Amino acid sequence: MICRNCNRDAGNSSFCPYCGAPMRSKYCPRCGVPLPPDGRACYSCGWRDTAPGAERAVSQPAPEVNSGDKGLVSGKREEPRDDLPKSLQKRSGAQTLLCLISGIAVLAVMGVTLYLMLMGNLFSVGGEVIDPLTGAAAEGGSFGLLTHFNAIKDFAIGLATSIPQAAQNMDLVTLGREVSSAVIMVMYALASVIVSIATLVAVIRFIVGMARGRYFNMAKFAALDLAAVGLIWMGARFGYFSDSVGAGSGTLVCLLIAAAALAVCLVSNLVFAGRNIAKVGSVLKLITNAGIFACAAVCFLAFPFRISEAYNGNGSEAFVGSLDLIVSALNGEPERSVSLIGMIAAIGLLVFTLKYLFTLPFYMSKTASRLARTFKFDGYRDKGFMFRSIELIVGAVPFVALGIIYLRGANSAPSTQFVFFIVAVVATFVFAVINRLCMNRDQL
Hints:
- This protein is mainly alpha-helical.
- It has two domains: 93-277; 278-358 and 381-444, no CATH class.
- The chain contains ten helices and five strands, in the order E-E-E-H-E-E-H-H-H-H-H-H-H-H-H.
- It has helices spanning 93-119, 149-168, 172-212, 219-238, 250-273, 280-301, 317-330, 340-372, 386-410, 416-438; strands at residues 24-27, 34-35, 58-61, 124-125, 128-129.
- The strands form two sheets. A three-stranded antiparallel β-sheet has the order 2-1-3, with no helix packed on it. A two-stranded antiparallel ribbon has the order 4-5.
- The longest helix is centred in the middle third of the chain and has 41 residues, at 172-212.
- It is elongated and about 100 Å long.
- The protein starts with 23 loop residues before the first strand and ends in a 6-residue tail after the last helix.
- Residues 51-84 have low confidence and may be disordered.
């Protein structure tokens, strides 16, 4: 027998004559990895000797190893082992191709997104690039963090005087545009930092993953890219520049290609799973994950910046709409009126809207990442979405209540976006409950 400690031939001795190591040890009943003498858990597959009647680690002699194989250590073989979790098995040539295609797709998407953020063309209206600092056509035909760094810096410095001055002069239109531009720039800077760091880590992860020879999935990085672009999308829709992220804008393009990269990761994950996913628990888990993501996407895309059907302006009704109401009232030409209670509710809606600007993109990206990695092949116990769905529905209750108060104060019907948001929040919770019930049962 070969000693597991020094790899020398110890013969049939109970202890190695060279290093004194015992030649009889406990092994994991699931994957065969040697355990410490008092070990009750396996570091390789996660087996635990805790449940009554569970499999017990057995003490047995070390396996006979030919002299030509003295360099091999137990648990490491040249041929694939079917008894190991899939995440620990060496990938095949086809699986390597899947990892290569999905990894390159994610890196390409992140590279395009980072380029557009730094060099410009995220904002456009009617084929013309817009400068979100002024709302006019961008100088040089593009607007990016690097190409317009000095302009952005001067704008940030000037906010300290322009906003108080506009408020003092009751110039609410100028105040609204300044605040709108400030929100976009904050989102823009935050998104650029996220994508820059994520791209660097993704390159390292791809290289290490290909070198290790095991299956890996880069959906997390594509989801981060989706969340970062979603920040810009939400920030622009909040104020006076919502049209700048519409059709033809770089922001919309980045959202679509990030979603495409996640779809590639999902397909790769499902192909790697193969026929093993044809189990009731696995199918239910996939369907519920897809349902949760679909609801999160509806909450994100149809977020009720427009609360009432009577509002036909751009941007958030709680911000831009309220400013327009005040301006029209000061000018003596109110197009529509809202009661005092309704205006107080609008202030509350504004606070929640600012909160959702940051949370919804990451909630959607989290659900997208989990969908694309539904089957991780390593025996993990999924925690599901119960806590996050409860957190979402708890946060939505006061938002919806304030919305109803505002609608009564404005004597208007709710908008389609408002109704969709309520339905999507409730549906997210329902899918999360089903996901929790079927989770970790009859799965890979």
